[in-house]
Queue: 3 jobs
Job 1
Amino acid sequence: MAKPAVRYVCTHCGATSLKYSGKCFTCNNWGTIEEEPAACDSSPLSPTAGPLPSVECLSETAASVDHERISTGMQELDRVLGGGLMPASAVLLGGEPGIGKSTLMLQLARHTSARRLLYISGEESTSQIRDRARRLSIRSDHVLLVSEVDLNKIIGIIERDKPDIIIIDSIQTLHTGDFRSSAGTVTQIRECCSALLRETKQRNIVLLVIGHITKSGNLAGPKTLEHMVDTVLQFEGESFQRHRIIRTMKNRFGPTNEIGVFRMDEHGLKEVTNPSELFIAGRTSGVPGNAILAAIEGTRALLVEVQALVSKTNFPVAQRICTGIDSKRISILLAVLEKRLGFGTWGQDVFIKVAGGLKLAEPASDLAVASAIASGLNNTALSPGMVCAGEIGLSGEIRAISNGERRIREAAHLGFDTIILPKENTRELKPAIRKLPLKIIGCSSLQKALEEMKLSA
Ligand code: TYD
Ligand code: MG
């Protein structure tokens, strides 16, 4: 039977099919199917020519794994990388256009002067990159620039110039003539990335790849791209905000969910060493609907302001609009508030916002969100010196959370006088924590916590 000349691939999950459809039946996304040439025939497995690699004993391998990390000179970037760049590793950096991907990568050059850095741009000319480097005051002796999109030529350049670090800006612009599809399609992205990985792993080169993200916020290209690299970093938030958050989505060499915070000014990205101050800066105390959450992002404690606005709706169906937090979580909290505590939001629009563009995923944010809604609904401001954290269950109970002591320390460090936590987290606290100049209140239910906050339905 004749083999089909084309096949259809989902740009989101990489699933293939022989027929076009408007929806991918694997990941259920609409409009993500693209045509690509069918893969060549696979031949039955046959033994490979040449000597087989020797196997190693686990104890020997462990001894050789102790690689020295390469510092990027930016603590915030080192943190999201798990302590710096690993030799021969591949890092994918995603983010919206204009958020600062190219700027951040170029800033790496400032601190890695002991190593040859090759910046390959498919988006800008070398003179544009040079202009930017001048603005960022980067001396260019050890930085090699090239504007190229042809993968085969890029591999030739790598072989000729032997860099230690390579930056690809961006993977979507690269193209290899071995496939008929145009640049940016799934096949091209996947093939270019795997060819670069082969080349850089063999030569012990650090590969940094910039990737665009789609409208829905995912890295463009199949999920396989994320599986291929060692670390995936993503810029969070909007490009019109002054500060930028980079989050570790995946890391083979360190913790995930770690965040790095930067501020964009006229001289590039500057590190923000105390992000809590940024996320609670500019808050106005005494306003109903505002609560401060003692959050944990990766390995770091942060104080973040959660704001809720509850107002009578003018629509037949009341709106629930959330920024920085999952709307399903809000629906659950609204139901718990109404059913268990009598805080009804029927006929009321509820708007929730996490200040500073941060995205909250941890369940420990429940208590701050619920108290912000209750405070907004009651039109009673919470005490400005109070922070809280706790997961809320469907029966209105407050469940234990992770890293209670780190949250307490951060609240005390920033001068807050009270912290409300799950009761479980306040048992067996270390004496050093008890001595901190703030009142630690443990609550087993949302009802108790709201009473402590002087809120009632
Ligand atoms: P850029 O790194 O080009 O973004 P990306 O590669 O993610 O598309 O950043 C571009 C934005 O950053 C642009 O809006 C200008 C701004 N910017 C500054 O504010 N200060 C600077 O020093 C630089 C280099 C850029
Ligand atoms: Mg760019």
Job 2
Amino acid sequence: MKLAGKVALITGASMGMGKGHAETFIAEGATVYLADINDEKGLATATELGDKAHFVHLDVTNEEDWQNAMDTIESKDGVLDILVNNAGISVFLPLSAMTKDQYMKSIEINQLSVFLGMKYALPLLEKSKAASIINISSIEGFHGSVGGYAYVSSKFAVRGLTRSAALELAGKNIRVNSVHPGAVETPMVLEATGAQKEAIEQFKTTIPMKRMAKPAEVSKLVLFLASDDSSYSTGAEFIVDGGNLA
Ligand code: NAD
């Protein structure tokens, strides 16, 4: 058990990769707070994952929600060992079509959320003997994409947030790393429609391994970073993309 006795919070955990990470963490002995804006799905997922899973309502852009989630964890467990900033949305539109509101919504959910998560979790992470923050970026944190103005810029920003926090928190025994998946079989990708679906189909043909990842293939990397196995890794970028960036 790599996470025996550890307490984790994962945002966007009601489905997709966040749910996969929660399943993996629980199997390795952790107590997991599944945080999501979707209460119905989040509660159903927590019930499915059993006694070690707890749902907390959390809109990652909302400071009050972050504080409430931390108050809940403090009253039940008194400490937080692992924070996974995973929640995200993907909106791809040409310059002429994307509005300021659409742009800012993606920036708030994908980027501001990472800053708020690290800021509000810090007091409880400081109580851990060895804490780990994992910020989920994308391979689109390394390259441009047609229509990816908001998504790509937010995912580049996650790298900067991660490195800055890693420098500030290294002395407090809190490690901070980013994870960069390629295409993964989650609702974000499988339920895409229109131009986005077309772009995904085209993208799949360019993956050297000729297939998308299963969420569990990303969870194993996130588990490594969450556990003490990665005790000397901080401020670093971990790619899981079937060879795409190569
Ligand atoms: P998903 O759409 O399947 O799930 C996202 C989850 O985030 C959902 O449960 C949703 O309810 C939640 N969420 C959305 N807005 C929220 C908010 N404001 N507050 C709290 N929760 C919110 O997505 P996924 O594919 O599992 O993606 C997870 C992360 O991985 C995202 O950051 C995404 O950008 C990144 N990523 C995904 C892929 C991919 O191919 N699926 C590739 C690279 C990176």
Job 3
Amino acid sequence: MFIERNVSLQALNSFGIAARAGTLVRVRSEDDARAALAHPALAALPKFVLGGGSNIVLTGDVKAVVLKVEIPGRRVLPGAARHHIVEAGAGENWHQFVQWTLAQGLPGLENMALIPGTVGAAPVQNIGAYGVELQDRFHELDAMDLRTGQVFTLNAAQCGFGYRDSVFKHTPAEPGGLGLAGRALILRVRFALPRQWKPELGYLDLQRRMQQEGVSAPTPRQIFAWVVQTRRAKLPDPAVIGNAGSFFKNPTVSAEQCADIIGRDPKVVHYPMPDGSVKLAAGWLIDACGWKGKRLGNAGVYERQALVLVNCGVPDQPATGGEVMTLAKAIQTSVYERFGIRLEPEPVTVPG
Ligand code: EPU
């Protein structure tokens, strides 16, 4: 284990926000994690677990000890009757892992290609795209209790997955008391990939591609390529323009509330849900309020997708976390004033 002091986090968060960590430890194994927790100089200090940094907003220098998870490893485990079980270390790059599963002839993750971040961060916000969420392919994970160093295993039910949500986003102080935010370091994740693979083609973007290319039964690799191309066309590459993907969750409203909005704005993009509620496209709502391409300081709204906030600064003078949050609040206010809907941010805000 190697302890680094006064480390710049600018290259370690996809927004490219300039902030520093007083102490950073690169965790490359379960033993490293245990050693960091037991280290006399670190044991009593609060910890902050950092994965790929693709879903966080740093609002200042991080005072907690940053545990940067870099645990490697990918393997196929003896499978169950209906699934192949595949395990990856929490530090593996998500997209490379998806590619690797396809190279092993084990499809099932292709709709989630090109999502930035690490395998260990994927369950935290239950990543999802083009009709598949992590919870649909999840088997279980091993994590370390940051207070005791004990390793424990959670199945899907215990992870409490919801739309871009899990127990890892809630603090123990919240109702129910089951939250694990700040309590756990995810070490490894195991996936259950169906032996009887079926393509997930419900999304309009994928339907369009099938028509354009005259393909009625695409292979997993074709779906992978279409998702990669669609994401590249719509979303900014964090290596070029700093961002954290969708900045707000798509809100859910009642059928009556939706009918009311349609009455005033017939074009509102909405998706009826099985339980009778309706999901609205937050990107459309923000766009309708005129935010696309707008800037506040060095924080901006991406000109091709209003749901994505971007860092318009240069590396020497990037957006600050404060500017990003000020812009986010201004967007929330205008969407609330026009539609009566409170947008909920998707990334985790890291206090300074
Ligand atoms: N729209 C606009 N203007 C905009 C943006 C969107 O009118 O500026 C409209 C689009 O035309 C479309 C609708 O809103 O009709 C929805 O947009 P899109 O299909 O781009 O998907 P999304 O709802 O914005 C969600 C996820 C993405 C995921 C895609 C594909 C959330 C918060 N976002 O985006 O996830 O890749 O669907 O499945 O659920 C992420 O979480 O970081 C992320 C990128």
